[in-house]
Every structure is written in structure tokens, then in C-alpha cells.
Design a protein that fits this description.
This protein has 215 residues and is α/β, with parallel strands linked by helices. The chain is built from six helices and 14 strands. The protein has one domain: 3-Layer(aba) Sandwich (Rossmann fold). It is 32% helix and 30% strand. The chain binds uracil.
């Protein structure tokens, strides 16, 4: 696929439905069940955008009335890679639109002091090198987790990679594009900055806690 976001660039998907739903998600008073549903809906819309340039081929089919040549998706198959645990919130909506995609998981947590990404789990499909990987994590904050996750996908031999998040921080985008200049980022918003704890401001708070209601 040739991404509409050039390599090393960020595409802000500013569709009104995405922006409206993101505003609802940001509100402190939005409960976990509503938050999850909104994230799932936004993820479906992001899936639409990140696959916009999938190659197509024509095949012959038969309708009840006639034979015709009709388009179907061709080319490399997809692998969705969810960064645990918050990536699971995006994964559900992506799978609604891309049900045939394989799924990989990377477990990373942020060291609370250094903010470095620490890996604790990795399971990727064996044939990931033959697929286009779409790496999923709602918050691209420092960029460390995103960069580490993409590095694992590259280490597994994958050469066609995209990163999808809900909100990115300018600092994290800079880091990410420096480390992976070949990987485009798709996001619903670029927020103002990171605070001293590495949280995106204004952001949505801790994505995992808000998805799973753990706070
Ligand atoms: N992770 C989150 O869940 N939220 C942030 O704002 C930054 C990282």
C-alpha cells in the first residue's frame, strides 16, 4: 500500500464524526461503558482511513441478473498489532471493519520514573513479514512505547507498517518520526503537550483506566 500520509508523516483524521466522538470521550464524566463504545466507533472510522489505499483487483462474479467484473481487495494481507493494554480498545473497532486480519500483541509498560518502555509480552503471527502491520495504541505520548512496538514488528521482518492512535503529543510524534521515518502515523488529534508525568494535555487521562474502569 502507498499511504496517503507520506512516510514519516502524521495524518490527522479530522472527520466531523471522529472529532465529535472524541470530544465526548475527553469529558471526565463519560463513563467507561460509553468511553469504550465511542473508542470502538472511532476505531472503525480510523480503520476506514488507514486502509483507504489498499490495492484492488477485478474479479468476475454473478449477481441474480448478470455476470459482472467487480472490485475486491488484493495485495498484502493485514496484521493488527495491539499494544497492551489500551490498544485493545482500538483493536475491537478495527476488527469490526477488518475481520480477516491476523492479530499480534505487544505488552509494554511505562517505567514511571524514566518513562522508558519496558516489554513484558510479545506474540506476533508467524507470517507477519508478508503482511502490512497496523500498530495500535490510543495514546502516542512520549513516543517511547510506540517506537518500541514498531521496532519489534520490524525485528519480526515486517516492512510495511502504519501506526494508529487516538491522540498524539507533538513531543512523541517528533521522537517517533526520528526513530521510524518510514512509518506514517494516523491520529484523530494532536494535543498541546505532555505534562511532567508523561500524560497528554488536555488528552483523555489514562486510556487503559478509562477503557477498563480501573480508577
Ligand atoms: N498514556 C495514557 O493513557 N494517557 C496519556 O495521556 C499518556 C499515556
Amino acid at each position: 500500500m502507498t499511504s496517503p500520509a507520506d512516510a514519516g508523516q502524521t495524518l490527522v483524521v479530522d472527520h466531523p464524526m471522529i472529532q465529535h466522538k472524541l470530544t465526548l470521550m475527553r469529558r471526565t464524566k463519560t463513563a467507561a461503558n460509553e468511553f469504550r463504545l465511542l473508542l470502538r466507533e472511532i476505531s472503525m472510522l480510523l480503520a476506514y482511513e488507514v486502509t483507504r489505499d489498499m490495492p484492488m483487483e477485478m474479479v468476475e462474479i454473478e449477481t441474480p441478473l448478470a455476470k459482472m467484473m467487480a472490485p475486491v481487495v488484493a495485495g498484502k494481507k493485514l496484521c493488527l498489532v495491539s499494544v497492551l493494554r489500551a490498544g485493545g480498545g482500538i483493536l475491537e473497532g478495527m476488527l469490526d471493519i477488518l475481520p480477516a486480519a491476523r492479530v499480534g500483541h505487544i505488552g509494554l509498560y511505562r517505567d514511571p520514573v524514566s518513562l522508558a518502555a519496558v516489554e513484558y509480552y510479545l506474540k506476533l503471527p508467524r507470517d507477519i513479514s508478508e503482511r502490512t502491520a497496523i500498530v495500535l495504541d490510543p495514546m502516542l505520548a512520549t513516543g517511547n512505547s510506540a517506537a518500541a512496538a514498531v521496532a519489534e514488528v520490524k525485528a519480526a521482518g515486517c516492512q510495511s507498517i502504519r501506526f494508529v492512535c487516538l491522540i498524539a503529543a507533538p513531543e512523541g510524534l517528533k521522537t517517533f518520526h526520528e526513530v521510524h521515518p518510514d512509518v506514517p502515523v494516523y491520529t484523530a488529534a494532536i494535543d498541546s503537550h505532555l505534562n511532567e508525568h508523561g500524560y497528554i494535555v488536555p488528552g483523555i487521562g489514562d486510556a487503559g483506566d478509562r477503557i477498563f474502569g480501573t480508577k
